[in-house]
Write a structure and sequence with these properties.
Elements (H helix, E strand, L loop, with lengths): L4 E9 L6 E6 L2 E5 L8 H14 L6 E5 L5 E7 L3 H7 L10 E2 L5
Parallel strand pairs: 1-3
Antiparallel strand pairs: 1-5, 1-6, 2-3, 4-5
Length: 104
């Protein structure tokens, strides 16, 4: 049986005043990070912020699309969409979080 996986569409605002999850705007999770977008620093800050909020290791959070864009697709391995929704305190269940089967 494959491990659960969650995919999030994340809109990132680099060079913000603080690292924070702003909330949902439609199907996108809006986050702010203090790191600049140079040399992947903002991507690493996004991974660390999401890992902390979701209670998982940063190695389980992977940016799979949008490395140089503000809108990114982020995969969280080993975390089911309903559990991610609970940890992100989403009202009304999973909402915009998508499930994805992990390929072997």
């Amino acid at each position: 049986m494959p491990l659960p996986e969650t995919r999030l569409t994340v809109e990132v605002r680099p060079r913000a005043g603080r690292d924070e999850i702003v909330g949902w705007q439609g199907s996108r999770l809006r986050v702010r990070v203090t790191a600049p977008p140079a040399d992947g620093a903002a991507n690493e800050a996004v991974r660390a912020l999401l890992a902390e909020r979701l209670g998982c290791a940063p190695s389980r959070v992977e940016i799979v699309r949008g490395h140089t864009a503000r809108t990114k697709i982020v995969r969280v391995a080993g975390l089911a969409p309903d559990e991610a929704a609970t940890r992100l305190a989403l009202p009304g269940g999973a909402g915009p979080i998508r499930a994805a089967a992990r390929s072997a």
